[in-house]
Amino acid sequence: METLDALAKRASVRDYMNQPVPKDMLEKLVDAGRRAPSARAVEPWEFVVIIGRAMLDKLAGIISTGVFLKQATACIVVFCQDTKYYLEDGSAATENILLAATDLGLGTCWVAGDKKEYCEEVSRLLGAPEHLKLISLISVGWAVREPKQHKRRTLSEVLHWEKI
Length: 164
Ligand SMILES: Cc1cc2nc3c(=O)[nH]c(=O)nc-3n(C[C@H](O)[C@H](O)[C@H](O)COP(=O)(O)O)c2cc1C
What we know:
Helix 1 (3-9) crosses helix 4. By secondary structure, the chain is α+β, with helices and mostly antiparallel strands. It has helices spanning 3-9, 23-34, 53-62, 86-103, 119-125, 155-158, and strands at residues 45-50, 74-81, 107-112, 132-141. Residues 11-12, 65-66, 109-112, 150 line the site of flavin mononucleotide.
């Protein structure tokens, strides 16, 4: 799939089939994540891939905005060291993973990490040391149906030439 097609096709998926995602695909997603741009080339990220049902269910129970992790067959958790640009770097890595997943025909949804009240509990559950910041949790799986495109602000609304 061309990059621009993947960009246009990506949409959040929250309903997944009960069918595992092959490990090599999950590795490809993390490989896409680690190729993201990183301020000062620090690459502060660490990726935890979860495929165990018990842990996915536990996370679904903790994260009020991620209850659909109960259905997902995998979750990629993005952590970053506490660098100046940790959030930008971790977000770039997260978006790379979403786009790579679209390219592979997988469904994903970005679940909030940074600033959420469950950060500490999630970090503790996953054995993450205190200096790592939770950026995002990406649910991964095979979509039950083609996701609907979210209604977006139009190009003419958001594009400004020379001045806003
Ligand atoms: C920083 C960030 C945090 C998000 N957190 C959640 C979340 O916790 N739960 C959820 O269901 N969706 C979450 N989303 C997904 C957005 O709801 C979704 O991207 C938005 O509604 C647009 O829909 P689309 O992804 O289908 O284009 C998050 C997205 C971003 C960028």
